[in-house]
Amino acid sequence: MAARRRSLPQPPPGNKYIEFRPSGIHGLGAFAIRKIRKGTRIIEYVGRKISKQESLEQLQQQNTYIFDLDEQWDLDGNVEWNPARFINHSCQPNCEALNEDGRIWIVALRTIQPGEEITFNYGYDLTDYRDHPCRCGAPNCVGYIVAEEFFEEVRRREAQRRELEARRRSTR
Ligand SMILES: [Zn+2]
């Protein structure tokens, strides 16, 4: 039997902005196939609507595709029919995930040129941040996948770690 190649994820029918292919950041990524204007809703981040209770259980099982929808519901994007789950995180993203009336859209933060990889900040908090290293390649990459509001805190903690390690080495 011939080896079967796994086909690449496809954007939703009618989506004219992106294609999915291997990424230098991680695994697969989404890439612009035309110029995209600032403010464009590029793709909807879809998934299962789940209760806060199930959301908590999913998070404990290391499901990293959970979005906060409202006070009652969350969105679990870890489903086959959500190609947007392949979009990579960046510390200097060209998109953001916006919640509009309970629907999550990946929206362009600036003009995006054809061929550019589509990225957004995953917005993780500091819990176990060292389990989520970042290889986005941005000049300001903080080294871990966290929301921008935590960049300074992560830099502070990492500097402290390096200092402790250096001290440990010098006293050996
Ligand atoms: Zn980064």
Q: What do you see in this structure?
A:
With 172 residues, the chain is an alpha+beta fold. The protein has two domains: 18-46 and 81-170, Beta Complex (Beta-clip-like), CATH 2.170.270; 51-76, no CATH class. Helix content is 17%, strand content 26%. The chain contains two helices and ten strands, in the order E-E-E-E-H-E-E-E-E-E-E-H. The longest helix has 20 residues, at 151-170. The structure holds zinc ion. The site of zinc ion has 7 residues, from loops.
Summarize the structure.
Helix content is 17%, strand content 26%.
Question: What is the strand and helix layout of this fold?
Answer:
Elements: E1 18-22, E2 28-32, E3 41-45, E4 48-51, H1 52-60, E5 66-68, E6 73-76, E7 88-89, E8 95-100, E9 103-108, E10 117-120, H2 151-170
Parallel strand pairs: 7-10
Antiparallel strand pairs: 1-2, 2-10, 3-9, 4-6, 5-6, 8-9
Bound molecules: zinc ion.
How large is the radius of gyration?
Answer: 18 Å
The largest sheet, given as strand count, sense and whether it forms a barrel, is: 4 strands, mixed
Strand order of the largest sheet: 1-2-10-7
Return the domain count.
2
CATH class of the largest domain: Mainly Beta
Per CATH, the architecture of the largest domain is: Beta Complex
The sequence of SSEs as H and E is EEEEHEEEEEEH
Q: What share of residues is helical?
A: 10-25%
Shape: globular
Question: Which strand-content bin applies to the residues?
Answer: 25-35%
How far apart the termini lie comes to: 59 Å
> What is the average per-residue confidence, as pLDDT, rounded to a whole number?
94
User: Spans of 5+ residues with little confidence (pLDDT < 50)?
Assistant: none
Number of beta-strand segments? 10
Compute the number of helices: 2
Would you tell me which CATH topology of the largest domain applies?
Answer: Beta-clip-like
- Which small compounds were modeled alongside the protein? zinc ion
The CATH superfamily of the largest domain turns out to be SET domain
Q: What is the SS-derived class?
A: alpha+beta
